[in-house]
Amino acid sequence: MPWRSSALALLVLGAVACSSSTPSGGAAPAASEKTNAEDSGSPTGSSGGTTPTPQTDGGSSPDGATQPPAIAFPAKWIDGTACGTDPDLQTFQITPDTFILRQSLCTTFEGPFMYLFVGSTKALLVDTGTGGVDLKGKVTGLLAGKTVQLVVAHSHSHGDHVNGDPAFKNQPSTTVVGTSVTAVGQFFGISGDAAAAYDLGGRVIDVLPIPGHQAAHLAYYDRETKLLLTGDTLYPGRLYIDDWNAYRASVPRLVAFVDAGHPVSYMLGGHIELPKTGADYAFGAQVHANEHVLQLGDAELRELGAAVKAMGNTPKREVHPAFIISP
Fold this sequence. Notes:
Elements: E1 89-95, E2 98-103, E3 113-118, E4 122-126, H1 135-142, E5 149-153, H2 159-162, E6 174-176, H3 181-188, E7 196-199, E8 204-209, E9 218-222, E10 227-231, E11 238-240, H4 244-259, E12 266-269, H5 298-311, E13 318-319, E14 324-326
């Protein structure tokens, strides 16, 4: 979401009501969450302290690859309702080399999500949050025992996704990717609007430019888990749009990417701003009781695509069950 000053958190509650439904990528049953010692107070949705066992149905996706693991997401993320006991960062392990990190709303009303993919030679961290928490220490712990180059990249350049960068700069075996259109294009080898393949060593991440929310916005697709990171372009919340013309070109391009042999297990964005029922949380709210699930699915992407197409040249605020278009 756009970077705002902390003073805006004092805005009066006045959210617009929206309906609720279970997205096609809806929550799986009870979560089992891997935690480090400092995460022991983290909500898990189960007994906690364990690693989920990825499961496959033995089938194949349209591109011929093995189906991704079935993911039992946490029943509850750190949502600002237990600031006295919750850690600053919650870690959820999807596979032995795939992690979701969530920065607590107790530290920032943005409550951003970050993602770590590990290959045999490189690890890719997508986003660094607002800073002020020990993300570097957490990532270092997750990479313990692995000899990899850490690449720190971003969904886009807004402060709530890049302000944790300083902790990673000038560190050994670490590269922090720039945030301009030119910088990300040169680093990942992006040419025009086409996706570029980035190899982590036996694990390929496709990087697709999707400007609109911000000029250098990227989507990341992990061929191993079939996870598609959509940043602030699509997530369960208010979809703020800086450049409508760019946005309404990016969304159908994202749909076309999926249709071109990139099946999606789940779409994961940068925030949660909706509860499971009722109105969206007021801007600046640091307590998100009864949060909507993080994971969305193919149906939500196509719903967004249809809505954007229908609006044409005249964008408007429009409430959908799993997102709110807020141009």
